[in-house]
Amino acid sequence: MQKLFFLLLSFLAINFLTAQEMNTDLYDLSKMKSGLKNRRISSTDKTGGNRDHLEPFKPGEKRVIADIQGAGIINHIWITIAPPPGELSRNDIIIRMYWDGNSYPSVESPIGPFFGQGWNEQYNYAAFPLAAGPLNGTSLVSYFTMPFQKGARIEIENQTDKQINAFYFYVDYFEVNQLPKDMGRFHAWYNHELTNALPEGETEWALTGEWKPNTKPENNYTFINTKGKGHFVGINYYVHCPTPMWYGEGDDMWFIDGEAKPSLIGTGTEDFFNTSWCPKEPYAHPYFGYPRVNNDVGWLGRTHVYRFFISDPIFFEKELKGTIEHGSNNNLTLDLGSVAYWYQDKAVALPKAPTKEQRALRPFIKFEDMHRWRDAWRKSKGNDSKLWGNE
């Protein structure tokens, strides 16, 4: 009887695993479907010529690049822009998406950070739903599924002080009579903050002061704060660190459905992003990675890290607040930016977007600055002529 029981258990496990393995995109790709009509809105030259881009955007100008009526599902977006970063900041070109006739956007972000290009930089980036590149990140691509029942509108705003000379794009979607049941609405929100160090200073690793526990998680950096029912599916996280000290001792903390204390608490920033031991090397996995790392002393400089929750979404019934410490116990001044991606059962308004002034790029700390730090340290030590630096 015992042998028969284990045989039955093994049979059920094998069949369960087989069913699970077949629940994949490639498996679904083989299924025949009905009632779907492919549609595309693009910047194609309607005269048949080769000027396949929108005419120049002036500074401050807004353009609606897609205005779709009825029900459908956007499944692919491609964009490239001229001039390139360095001449035209993709940190100051804003993309907004409106679902179901709403007057408020459910997607709002600088176009660079949305597609995985932090600050006003360009570099190759390849994740499961988003990509930038090749040619050093100049092609911006999304494969996120974006359903809508009563129309969709995509808007671009030029908040730079320069002209967008050429804007190329595709928006591909399925036209349907009625959305399948339980299709959520896609959301994405960019946040930005120059964080505050502790009153006693930047005490990371207890080098300059006592390490204390975080008893006030409300001081954490917030990357999602929304009300309603849905699930969180990903984040691009941009860190500009003004110190050589490791920036990533901060834990992620999730407040689900109005919790006073977070039910999900992590063990460090690198751990939250599926990595370990203070990495500073480029790495790319479909679900997580480091496409941009600093090449300065220690962890001084800019780092971009991402994670997509494809098999492990974070679910909420009433509300969700996702946060992360900026250093252990929020003890570091960091220039943080993030784009969070999630779905809700209906399109909702986002928290207020950071202004152009609030998301302005911070300058790099250079060797001259470090030499000034050394000069101040020498004077604090009596300015002995043989001071080395680690006394």
Question: How would you describe the overall organization of this protein?
Answer:
This protein is mainly β. The chain has two domains: 140 residues, Jelly Rolls; 189 residues, Jelly Rolls. 12% of the residues lie in helices and 35% in strands. It has five helices and 22 strands. Strand 4 and strand 5 form a beta hairpin. The termini are far apart. The N terminus is likely disordered.
Query: What's the total helix number?
Result: 5
Shape-level CATH architecture of the largest domain: Sandwich
Unreliable segments (pLDDT under 50, ≥5 consecutive)? 3-22
The radius of gyration is 24 Å
Portion in strands: 25-35%
Order of helices and strands: HHEEEEEHEEEEEEEEEEEHEEEEEEH
User: Span from first to last CA?
Assistant: 74 Å
Kindly identify the CATH topology of the largest domain. Answer: Jelly Rolls
| Count of spatially separate domains | 2
Structural class: mainly beta
Name of the CATH superfamily of the largest domain: Protein of unknown function DUF2961
Let me know the number of strands: 22
Q: So what's the overall shape?
A: globular
CATH class term of the largest domain? Mainly Beta
Mean pLDDT: 93
Percent helix: 10-25%
Sheet with the most strands? 11 strands, mixed
Keywords: Signal
Signal peptide: 1-19
Protein name: DUF2961 domain-containing protein
Organism: Haoranjiania flava
